[in-house]
Amino acid sequence: MVSIRDVAKEAGVAISTVSKVLNNYPNVRGETKERVNRAIEQLGFVPNSIASALSSKRSGRVALVLDVNRNAQAVDEIPMQYMIGAINRAKELGMDIITVFAAMLSDMSAEEMTRYFQSQSVEALIVCSLSRTEDEALCKMVKSGNFKTVLINAPGVDENTSSIHIDNQKAQYEVAKTFLTESTAFCTSKRILYIAGKKEGYVSGERLKGMQKLAQEMELSLLVRVGNFSELEARKLTMQYAPHKDAIICASDLMAIGAMKALIDMDIYRPVCGFDGTNLMGYAGKQMHTVGQDFKRTAACAVEEAGRLIGGEAGREIIMPHKLMRIKYLDVIS
Amino acid sequence: MVSIRDVAKEAGVAISTVSKVLNNYPNVRGETKERVNRAIEQLGFVPNSIASALSSKRSGRVALVLDVNRNAQAVDEIPMQYMIGAINRAKELGMDIITVFAAMLSDMSAEEMTRYFQSQSVEALIVCSLSRTEDEALCKMVKSGNFKTVLINAPGVDENTSSIHIDNQKAQYEVAKTFLTESTAFCTSKRILYIAGKKEGYVSGERLKGMQKLAQEMELSLLVRVGNFSELEARKLTMQYAPHKDAIICASDLMAIGAMKALIDMDIYRPVCGFDGTNLMGYAGKQMHTVGQDFKRTAACAVEEAGRLIGGEAGREIIMPHKLMRIKYLDVIS
DNA sequence: CTGTTAGCGCGTTCAG
DNA sequence: CTGAACGCGCTAACAG
Fold it and tell me: pLDDT tens digits for B115-140?
């Protein structure tokens, strides 16, 4: 293994000089830098990230905390998108990502988690869809401020915590409005079944607000039920209520699929509206409206933001864009 | 941050003694060990894995190389399962996993990859579905023996390379046989469309062999076409050939879904058989036969195997079990 | 602008 | 069975 020492010898300079070149320090003469870089090139030297981390006490390591398979019986498309987006961006930025599943953390106290992440030299966390009620310990650890944190789809900005999400309220409002306007069923009446996410979730609450706002504006008769982002629960709720409703609007694609399945089973037709824009929607078999989110891009932003926080900047809120979509089979129509 | 030094002081012993306790060395008196462990407990000490890796030159770090979104338009369920299985097992074993997407490696030469992994202190690789033709550089690096490697779904055992897979030939043979026997269509005739995976893939080849063996035994008329594990290609092939066939057998679930979609579009019925046992099959809308694989377990085994290789043992071949399934909607029937 | 000197936190000798 | 001493590859003061 070729080390910084070899490079120094090859270039005929001191080790520290090489280090400076490596880390883009200002005080190195152009010619010397040239020489060092040539040596690096020739020897094919790549700095050992572990040694670098140990010495500088900056590992550039962030833990991506994902919630897999808790709410979704089906497919973990969204976590996968987050991962891809985060890992790719991290590589570009020379950062290091470790993936952690929330399930592995669920039996730890806040202190144990802290120690675990410290032992892994983690400097920042990216937490996807933190639930205030379900992940108490994790929540507590984030609040403790021991780690810089980027929350995806959860609120809570402070000095070392940023929050990234779309404008859920607006998105739900817009997609439902477009959906209802374009759905022929709307001509006849206005009885809507809204299948919300979780009872006390932040995202769920925002989406519900958007829906309620629209209901008021359009004078809809709105029945709200909680589906816990579960396909199965949405299916049951649809079975129970859909026959007396004109349209079904769900707070997630997965629930929309559940609703659609129920309708097919009952052999009745009602337009269905989802939320997320997952590929899975292409498998529902009918056209559906939904909100498109770019999860990869969100995760990439989260990584950048983690870097910013590690760099000492203060937490902030970042709103990602969303778009309205109509999906049928595997094809995105708009 | 509480370090090994603090523990030593607290326990009133030397640092090296604590280290020995930590690493389960033999030569420590029981009572001393007790005392050290108590101190560790009290201080909530967790060893710094980075420092440990740097010093011992054993990072216990393995890179999980996944192929995402290359063959699948749809959903990356299988890579996700691999990840979950690998990460969970790695945590249990105190190993460290970094996830790498093959796409990020595709523009590197074998030497660049080697240096990249070395810079990350990676000791072993777990490569999922390596393709001899598509990943030349990766393939070369594996053969170079610079890293211990576990190949999932690819052949190539040697001193520092193990291979893990199911018996693809047998599995394809069995599932097709059961499928044909149970499908009513079989009563009338024997014209089969087999949509294979890749033209030169190891796994694809094995499955094809299984199918051909069965075709001979059952005197089937077998038309083989290559679908490249693509839903879309399978859809097109089905459109083209299915009208004159009695049943369709695919080398993957995703292709089976594509086939099923085509049949629905054409409004004709033909029984379809898949391979993999993904949850996505539950969204196909019809009952299908398939081969069930436990991807999580496979990945967990791969991690253990990587540990074994790092420990200096020789590479070997591991055959994982498979099972035959019938899937309908979200429910596994058998 | 460059070289020298300490460590980072731990594992590994090897003499006690 | 113990503990001092050394080094992993690199960064970070400080001298020069």
Answer: 999 999 999 999 998 888 888 899 99
Domain identity same for A229 and A273: yes
Domain annotation covers residue A31:
yes
Please report residues of B whose CB lies closer than 8 A to that of A121: 48-50
Q: Report angle CA A143, A145, A148 to the nearest 5 degrees.
A: 110
Stated in angstroms, how far is B182 CA from C10 C1'? 62
Please give the tally of structural domains in chain A.
3
Q: How far is the CA of B54 from the C1' of D8 (A)?
A: 5
Residues A229 and A253 occupy one common structural domain: yes
The enclosing domain of B298 has a CATH number of 3.40.50.2300
Task: Report whether pLDDT(A235) > 70.
Answer: yes
- Cα separation, A15 vs A10, whole angstroms: 11
Residues of A in contact with B111 (CB under 8 A): 44
Q: How far apart are CA B1 and CA B227, in angstroms?
A: 55
In terms of domains, do B44 and B69 share one?
Answer: no
Q: Give the pTM.
A: 0.92
Same domain as B312, residue B260? no
CA distance B51 to chain A (A): 6
Q: In the structure, how far is the CA atom of residue A51 from the C1' atom of nucleotide C12, in angstroms? A: 18
The pLDDT assigned to B282 comes to 74
Given a contact cutoff of 8 angstroms between Cβ atoms, the answer to whether B269 and B263 are in contact is yes
Rounded CA gap, A108 and A104, in Å?
Answer: 8
Residues B311 and B263 in one domain: no
Secondary structure (H, E, C), B21-54? HHCCCCCCCHHHHHHHHHHHHHHCCCCCHHHHHH
Give residue B13's pLDDT. Answer: 87
Q: Do the domain assignments include residue A125? A: yes
Distance CA(B172)–CA(B308), nearest Å, equals 30
Q: Are B299 and B158 part of one and the same domain?
A: yes
Domain-located, residue A121:
yes
Q: How many CB pairs under 8 A join A and B?
A: 119
What pLDDT score does A213 carry? 97
| Residues B296-328 pLDDT 10s | 999 999 999 999 999 989 999 999 999 999 887
Q: Which residue is nearest to nucleotide D4 (CA to C1')?
A: B14
Q: Cβ of residue A55 near strand C, that is under 7 Å?
A: yes
| Same-domain status, A172 and A159 | no
Same-domain pairing of B87 and B154 = yes
**Strand C close to B55 by CB, under 7 A:** yes
Chain A residues touching B64 at Cβ < 8 A: none
Q: What is the pLDDT of residue B26?
A: 78
Confidence (pLDDT) at B334: 31
> Hey, what amino acid is at B135?
D
Enclosing domain of residue B31 = 4-56
- Asked if residue A333 is part of any domain, the answer here is no
Question: Is pLDDT of B235 > 70?
Answer: yes
